[in-house]
Amino acid sequence: MQQHQARKRFGQNFLHDEGVIHQIVRAIDPQSADKLIEIGPGMSALTQPLFQAVDQLTVVEIDRDLVQFLQKKYAAEKLTIISADVLTVDFAQFGDGLRIVGNLPYNISSPLLFHLMQYADQIVDQHFMLQKEVIDRMAAKPGDPLYGRLSVMLQSRYRIIKLFDVAPESFTPAPKVISAVVRMRPLKADRPQAKDAAVFEKVVAQAFSQRRKMLRGVLAQWADHIDWDAVGIAPTDRADAVGLSQFIALSDMLTPLLAKTEK
Ligand code: SAM
């Protein structure tokens, strides 16, 4: 499989640095009975050590040449290969207790993170290699220049822990950006939650639609229904100063209005 030509459209940058591979596997700490699913196994840099550590492994790969390569290399009894675009995969089929890992194709990071969020109740943890800047955005707190919609939405559902950076030279071909590895643990059912998830998503998206503007302007269309003091937000604040609990309070305040008009 030496000749596989890396396909840019599938975000293919293959890990070759044994030290980094070892570091990722140690962070995952796979146990034999784990229900592990790897997204984008590629040429099996991570698949190989994971395969050795667990009784059963499932992988999802879009590139048919790589699927063929994996079929030849591994026994079907132990490796289940799903030949598909991961964004179309219904993770409900795998049941509970899932551990999801992958050196992800960076071109679909956000849609993939949001796709998996639907299944967070079934997931124990996720370990992903992503572009460092995306992980910094995921973990950013209010006041941080990278704090935005991605931070609020993901932090409403997961504990996000950035683990370590990975240099471009660890991959073939080398990507133009620095990478990093993140651990995501879904929060339990007793986490602070908005009454209506769709309204929450809408309010957060609107608030960050013009992040340099004051919220009284950005949310002007709903201003008659907002009691700023009650939600603990100043009308002159910008979205990047607003924390998760304040967004939840704002969303709950707007739910009677927005949940109704959406129907
Ligand atoms: N895990 C390998 C490694 O570490 O060397 C490959 C990582 S490479 C960054 C991303 C992998 O995801 C490639 O194998 C690529 O073909 C696969 N991929 C890209 N888009 C995908 C999609 N939508 N669904 C499933 N796999 C995808």
Distance between the termini: 53 Å
Strand content: 15-25%
Number of E-state strands = 9
Radius of gyration, rounded? 20 Å
Q: Report the CATH superfamily of the largest domain.
A: Vaccinia Virus protein VP39
What would you say the CATH architecture of the largest domain is? 3-Layer(aba) Sandwich
How many domains, as an integer? Answer: 2
Q: State the helicity in percent bands.
A: 25-40%
Q: For the residues shown, what is the average pLDDT?
A: 96
Largest beta sheet, briefly? 7 strands, mixed
H/E series, N to C? EHEHEHEEHEHHEEEHHHH
CATH topology of the largest domain: Rossmann fold
Strands of the widest sheet, in order across it, are 4-3-2-5-6-9-7
Shape: elongated
CATH class of the largest domain: Alpha Beta
User: Which class do the helix and strand fractions yield?
Assistant: alpha/beta
Spans of at least 5 consecutive residues with low confidence: none
The kinds of small molecule bound in this structure are:
S-adenosylmethionine
Counted by DSSP, the helix tally is 10
